[in-house]
Design goal:
alpha+beta; 2 domains; two-stranded antiparallel sheet; two-stranded antiparallel ribbon; about 15% strand; elongated
Length: about 140
Amino acid sequence: MTTRDDTENIAGTVGSLRLELAAYRLRVTALEFSLESAEEALRETKAALEFSLTSGRIGDWDLDLITDTSRRSLRHDQCFGYDHSIPEADWGIAVFMRHVHPDDRARVEASLRGAVRGFAGLGRRIPRDLAGWQRALA
């Protein structure tokens, strides 16, 4: 048999759970809004970066020292004299080092080793054309 106290306790529990759920829904909604805002800001930043890279005719790339692969833009590959994108798996450390000016290779290798230890700051000369080399910073 259910007593009045039991009914009040159950009603109180239900009410309390509803309030907790409402508060949780508000937090989820705030997080979703925050996430949507961050995603929109990221889209805008990516669009601005893409515009800048395209306008400046600049290539971008990431060299993964662990997997010995890279992600590069077509413009990056074009800067190195290719007329098409090179597959990620076909451009690793060895290919990169072949494109570094011989006088810069020891310094670039030291920079790569420093990057492995958590440092950055690569700069090297890449072939521009048959007539010379151009400086590029990464």
